[in-house]
Amino acid sequence: MRHSFLTILCVVFFILPVFAQLKVSKLFSDHAVLQRDQPIKVWGWADAGSVTIRFNGKKHKTRPDKQGKWMVTMPAMKAGGPYEMTIKNSRETISFQDILIGDVWICSGQSNMEWTVSISGNATTEIENAKDKGIRHFKIPKSYAKTPEETLAGGEWQVTNTETVGDFTAVGYYFARELRKHVDIPIGLLNTSWGGSRIEPWMSAGTLDLEDPETAIEQILEKAEKAYEAKVAELKVAFPDLSSEENGIKDGVAVWVNEKTDASKWMQLNVPGIWESQGYDGFDGIAWYRTTFDLTEAEASDKITLALGKIDDSDITWVNGQKVGETIQSWNTQRLYKVSPEILKAGKNTIAIRVEDTGGGGGIHGEAADIYVKTNAQKIALVDEWDFRLDAMMSSDYLNQANQIPTLLYNKMIFPIKNYAIKGALWYQGESNAGNARDAEQYEALFADMIHNWRTDFRSGEFPFLYVQLANWLPPQDAGVDSNWATLRASQTNVLKVKNTAQAVIIDIGDAEDIHPGNKQDVGLRLSLAARHLAYGEDIVYRSPMYQSHSIKAGKIHLTFDHVGDGLSVKNKYGYVNGFAIAGADGKFVWAKAELDGARNIIVWSDQIPNPKYLRYAWADNPDDVNLYNSAGLPACPFQIME
């Protein structure tokens, strides 16, 4: 989650609306994409009287029910357009222009699906070259409800161009762009995603066996409130003034920014490095950093550049009590602020930074080399221990918990769109369910149930459900270290048993320091390969190499893989295969040697393990050196043999 929940403009009312005028679901608007080759439902609300729809040369008529809802089902149509749609009753007329008939793909999950083109890799060039009007995007606002609701909080269809594409889901856009190279029909991206969300909020109460969902929700919130209070009490040991109220800025005045500020009771924190990894796990809210740097008289007489690396999520920065820069909700952006000479002085200069984090990691992070002061004479590194204190902790309420609570997102971001005909779904989520081993293991059953839940709701049969396996992240680990991320990846792989599903393995394009890898282009490409096979019937290699079987002979493990295409390949000029670890009966893993043995086979061994029994491949948060691929350039899927 990288966007402040306090900016979510969604109010949930638990009463039935009174429809005194003609309305239509927000999914129908100018530039919409409707699903080809399936009956098309159009619905809305009105007072008494008939409703007439004219579309593609046909007229359709219906009447509202007692609750004021009306629905028309138009027959299946071939891809084409643009068309105009007119909806009218006796008093009003609504018209929509430039409607296309093509394929609609749901794009859902957490922040890696929500991540936009504008903050992904090569953004400037990608935006400049975005001209395909056959790709269209609808972003459902972050919203939630205690019980299922039929109306969306907002949203509109947008046509791809240089002004709009920056706000599209990057994964969805690059998927559609690749698909359009092979399938000449319009693609609509129905983006319903929320950063930091667990999988349970995307599922219905019935699917989760919640007989009394409202009571269950209240119990979850009560538990969260107790956990919040315990965390505040823990942090108050170091910061007695900590509450949900801000102290560093009072009545619009920043009080902790000048050199006379008493920081004697502040803590020390290493920069760079998120604060969760330095003893402040579970803290979301506002914190402050302070440090100093020295300038000569000559350096202070000219402007300098203050480079602060990346700051998660937002910052306001002062030098010597004067504000020099501010960046809001851009956790992955390098901070570079120019400081004019009238602010500077010879000798000691003070930097103060107010950092606001709304979820996930918080603080100054990134590369050490990107944190410095640059003068006309030198570059002064700012990598050190900084003075640090917590200021205000985000409260534990609905706005801050909605993406963690079962059913809430489903009720407002999935249920209202279930009548919209679709081709398939893209899913990129799992990070928020990988916090512990139990959650990671249970993900398989939850994910399979969610797929069934959605397929039942959308009534489009067993539509293709394509998903992204978790990328590599965090520092590389030693052999044998347990990994919740690896366990969750295995849960994701096991869901391939569900019919008409496919998994994009991206274990090779993650980022050790960034849970949101910038390379969304290859993610979209790999998903598009799966779509071309499952949804469009192309006979292509679309899956990563998968473990098929093994045998143990003379102290070596012989593996066989399927989905190899024309054969396995190793991205290593010496031919060695990386990423394998083996263990004997004691279960103590060591790194192993491995080499190809023909097109489908690999032999794995270690001189330290004369009688191997267990094996792991790419089994870590970040197996950073994997180099085994098939002929389509897809990386081998992580796996383990534990029996």
Question: What features would you highlight for this structure?
Answer:
6-stranded antiparallel beta sheet; 17% helix; alpha+beta; Jelly Rolls; 643 residues; 3 domains; Rossmann fold; 11-stranded mixed beta sheet
Helicity range:
10-25%
CATH architecture descriptor text of the largest domain: 3-Layer(aba) Sandwich
**Gap from first CA to last CA:** 38 Å
Q: Main β-sheet: number of strands, strand sense, barrel status? A: 11 strands, mixed
In DSSP terms (H or I, runs of 4 or more residues), the helix count works out at 10
CATH class call of the largest domain: Alpha Beta
Assembly state (oligomeric): single chain
- Average pLDDT score: 93
Fraction of residues in β-strands: 25-35%
User: Which structural class should the secondary elements be placed in?
Assistant: alpha+beta
Radius of gyration: 27 Å
Low-confidence stretches: 1-19
The number of distinct structural domains comes to 3
Stated plainly, the CATH topology of the largest domain is called Rossmann fold
Shape, principal axes of CA atoms: globular
The total of beta strands comes to 37
Query: What's the CATH superfamily of the largest domain, by name?
Result: SGNH hydrolase
